[in-house]
Write a structure and sequence with these properties.
76 residues, mainly alpha, 2 domains, single chain
Length: 76
């Protein structure tokens, strides 16, 4: 089963089950070393860069992203 298949399947689960899975996955990351975390972030950056280059992700100027973030903090 691929990561995408696992994600699609997991997203069909009820909220309590998804929360439980998320908790377990996040807990498993707490034991990673700094170098392991760095490797994971580099892989994520490469994946995101590839998504942008392939047109699978949309980019926004920094000022626009910051404005959106500020606006979302003000909305209850």
């Amino acid at each position: 089963m691929t990561v995408d298949e696992i994600m699609r399947e997991a997203l069909t689960l009820d909220v309590e089950t998804r929360a439980s899975i998320a908790h377990e996955l996040l807990s498993s990351l707490e034991s990673l070393s700094e170098s392991e975390v760095e490797v994971l972030w580099i892989a994520e950056a490469k994946r995101r860069s590839a998504d942008v280059k392939a047109g699978r992700a949309q980019t926004f100027p920094a000022h626009e992203s910051l404005a959106r973030a500020r606006a979302s903090r003000q909305t209850p």
